[in-house]
Design goal:
Layout: H1 10-15, E1 25-26, H2 32-42, E2 54-58, H3 62-76, H4 82-93, E3 97-103, H5 112-132, E4 136-140, H6 148-153, E5 161-171, H7 183-186
Antiparallel strand pairs: 1-5, 2-3, 3-5, 4-5
Helix pairs in contact: 2-5, 3-4
The structure holds flavin mononucleotide.
Length: about 190
């Protein structure tokens, strides 16, 4: 167990979560029961008005997804070269498991901002749930998350949006740490 996967206590588990790199992930990924448990945990999230303004799309046929992603990319960029095309298809097939999270806002007096905050909380919960099950996760967006054809491919339609692609698997090599904020610089104490 490395220092980024200390599950001794719930607090240390949360304090040691960090992202894996999707391109470096290897098997095993979560089996269907583990993935179902992770999604269940992720969906236990603050949600003003009980609107459930989010949903998951588990992408199972990765090769078909890669081909559809490439078609969407080429329709906007027909002159894309081989390297660019390979990067697009590679995006879809990296990591053992891939889940898209859609922001799915509802007509409501609850502001869109609050619904989107709930989506972000769900996304982080999914990363934490993967960590808690002994996997690594990587939340990526990229062009595909902002492409209408890709949204439609996943069964989404405006005002839905793709909040991210969640690559989940096992880490092939030790994770590197990244700079973390200076807590004093981002924390103040209001005393009236
Ligand atoms: C909404 C969102 C989209 C992101 N998209 C990307 C991306 O497309 N490419 C990337 O390298 N990192 C992206 N990241 C950052 C990674 O998910 C991750 O936070 C970072 O690489 C490592 O930070 P961590 O170890 O604290 O998780 C995104 C993060 C968020 C919140």
């Amino acid at each position: 167990m490395d220092s980024f996967n200390d599950s001794a206590t719930p607090a240390s588990l949360m304090a040691t979560r960090r992202s894996g790199k999707a391109r470096d992930m290897i098997s095993p990924g979560p089996d269907s029961a583990q993935l179902a448990a992770m999604l269940h945990t992720a969906a236990r999230v603050p949600d003003h008005g009980k609107l459930f303004p989010w949903r998951f799309v588990v992408i199972e046929n990765r090769d078909a997804f890669a081909q559809s992603l490439l078609a969407a990319y080429l329709s906007g960029k027909p002159g894309a070269g081989r390297l660019e095309q390979d990067a697009v298809t590679q995006f879809a097939v990296q990591s053992p498991c891939l889940v898209a999270v859609l922001s799915s806002p509802k007509q409501s007096h609850i502001p869109l901002w609050e619904q989107e905050l709930s989506v972000g909380a769900l996304c982080q919960n999914l990363c934490l749930a993967a960590h808690a099950h002994g996997f690594v996760a990587n939340w990526l967006t990229g062009w595909a998350a902002y492409d209408e054809q890709v949204l439609a491919l996943l069964g989404g339609a405006a005002p839905e949006r793709i909040a991210g692609f969640f690559f989940i698997g096992s880490q092939a090599k030790p994770l590197e740490e990244r700079p973390r904020p200076d807590m004093a610089a981002i924390t103040s104490h209001w005393a009236g």
